Amino acid sequence: MKKVLMGNHAISYGATLSRVQVIAAYPITPQTQVVELLSEIVANGELDAEFIKVESEHSAMAACIGASAAGARAFTATSSQGLLLMHEVLHWASRARLPIVMANINRAISPGWTIWTDQNDSLSQRDTGWMQIYTADNQEVLDSIIIGYKVAEKVSIPLMIVLDAFVLSHTYEPVDVPDQEKIDKFLPPYKPKIKLDPEDPHAFGGLTAPNIYMEFQYNHQQAMMEAKKIINEVGKEYGDITGRYYQNLSPYKVDDAEYVVITTGTISKTTNIVVDKLRDSGVKIGNLRIRTLRPFPSEEIYEQLKGKKKVFVIDRNISFGNTGIFFQEVKASLYNTDIRVPIFGFVTGLGGRDVTPELIEEIVNIGIKNEKPEEEVIWMGVKK
Amino acid sequence: MTEKKKRKISLSIPAEEIMRPGNLACQGCGASLAMRYALKALGRNVIFDIPACCWSVIDGPFPYSSIGVPLLHMAFETAASTASGIRAATKVLGKEDTTVVAWAGDGGTFDIGFQALSGAAERNEDIIYVCYDNEAYMNTGIQRSGATPYGAWTTTTPVKHYKKLPKKDIIEIMAAHRIPYVANVNIAYPEDFIRKFKKAASIKGTKFIHVFSPCPPGWKMKPDDTIKVAKLAVQTRVFPLIEIEHGIKYTLNVKVNKPKPVFEYLKLQGRFKHLTEKEVQRIQEDVDAYWDYIMKKVEFSKEYAG
């Protein structure tokens, strides 16, 4: 059924269709409509779930960990400061190998107080051992929650769906809400192999000496690498029933391109407009949107960039003292390959500043015009 | 063969041992005994979560576990929130008869985990929250906590600057949340201990149990004095054994008509040995005043809560 949904409500419907059993959440702008709608859905009896209205995001994730370890499908949603407060228990969730799914609405970090979008909140959690998927429209948000559970439960790793504050969270778009029946076939109930069970008592997460700790980390990493494949497989399976296919990468006119812009989130949608415009004037350009940050699809990125002349990475984030984070990721993944082309790193749109088609066109022109990047970080639209 | 007529003995302490032999507790550990009694009272249909505390170690290294029931180890400040999640899962999975227990030390309860505990109590989560209180961060090597009593030495309150602040009154704080059941227990009074755990398990909503739990290395006392010291805490009125229902109804569970001087309790513990006579007198006065305060509440309860 087609509905006109804001991104936040797309999350709520995604969680409902996934038949989540325990929700634990704490309000934060711009996430609140996610939990408001879910509260209503649970209160109406449309979803058989327990909703714990916790007193902090830290407790939200802790409750999800308890619920998931006890065998329930658990869900939460947060943003920015809330995600940062969760940091410790995000690590716990992944190292406990619990397939929790959460939505994070990308909001910049304070001070100064801000509620507008950039990616530094979720990127600060890059190494927590979670999978991270960056979405570009509300349809993808809803679909990714459902796909997310299937992936997470297959590899026993939690998964974070990331979307831009306001640009998606509060913007209404037409969204196809799939039939519950169809989703039930795609996503069966969560049946963990092992859980907290009085009939089969085990201790989880106890004292782990150097003789065994490393093996847990190795297994976690192996599962992550396996997830690269699983995300594509499950994305295809979902596409076969809905017509909407999702993969680690979402390339747009990359095949015959000489220049490739690398984007994430909603900036990629704007970039597609610029690609079309520039192609009309004869510039052979494409846009490679990275959906999956962890696991990082290095091999697929290599395949997409093979034979290209130049690459322009647009980051809506900054790692102070270095560069934009996707820029680092892309460069590092190519170092041991035969690709030796200039890669430009642009930082823009921090704290919700608009990233317009004009600005993206300027980025492309700088990239094409200059043989090599003159600066390690090229700030766009900043008042210096 | 005629069937022998068996004598029926009703034991106030269940004979079944759920805790397995062998764990990593220190000699004379009060917390180890506390777990043994708690499990006897609660039986096997339980799920525990344990945040960072001595029990994170006592249970044993992976893959061993001495507790004998399902246990989720968790981060320091999450005992109550994790238990809330476990409880929600058991509800939605149709296992409401399972008792969910958060088992934390005093640091994880009085200090770092207090927000989560207060939140869970306000939501009246159907859990038993147990704080085994050894009055300092013992697992990290005896640093002061919000539960360290006035006058005590710890590694962060050295003798020259011993703690000159009172211990938080945790059961009063929890009673102020108006949860159905708050009680304290003492490992030297196992019958009272077990009765209260059983009672807690029979009540819906948040139950908070404060366990007096001596720590020989941290209190600088002999391991074989654990029970003696624990008993003296009650006999000197340092630790009045009470229960508080719905935040209003106070009951005294062990009468202490002829209290021993507090000095009897203090003198067995090296952590108090620097105290002057004047300081001991001050502690005695504090103990007397607190006892009177609690007894007034007990009296009031008889009139008001019937």
Q: Give the name of the CATH superfamily of the largest domain in chain A.
A: Thiamin diphosphate (ThDP)-binding fold, Pyr/PP domains
* Count of helical stretches of chain A: 12
Number of domains of chain A: 2
| Mean of residue pLDDT values of chain B | 96
Strand order of the largest sheet of chain A: 3-2-4-5-7-6-13
What number is the mean pLDDT of chain A?
Answer: 98
Rg result of chain B:
19 Å
A few lines on this structure:
The complex is a heterodimer of chains A (384) and B (306). Chain A has twelve helices and 16 strands.
How would you characterize this protein structure?
The complex is a heterodimer of chains A (384) and B (306). With 384 residues, chain A is an alpha/beta fold. Chain A folds into two domains: 2-242, Rossmann fold, CATH 3.40.50.970; 249-379, 3-Layer(aba) Sandwich (Rossmann fold). Chain A is 41% helix and 19% strand. Chain A is built from twelve helices and 16 strands. In chain A, helix 2 links the parallel strand 2 and strand 3 (50-53). In chain A, helix 9 crosses helix 12. The mean pLDDT of chain A is 98. Chain B is an alpha/beta fold and 306 residues long. Chain B has a single domain (30-304), classed as Rossmann fold (3-Layer(aba) Sandwich). In chain B, strand 7 (242-245) and strand 8 form a beta hairpin. Chains A and B meet through strand 3, helix 3, helix 4 and strand 9 of A and strand 1, strand 2, helix 3 and helix 5 of B.
What tags apply to this protein structure?
heterodimer, A: 384 residues, alpha/beta, Rossmann fold, 2 domains, 7-stranded mixed β-sheet, 6-stranded mixed β-sheet, 12 helices, 41% helix, 19% strand, globular, B: 306 residues, 8-stranded mixed β-sheet, 11 helices, 8 strands, 37% helix
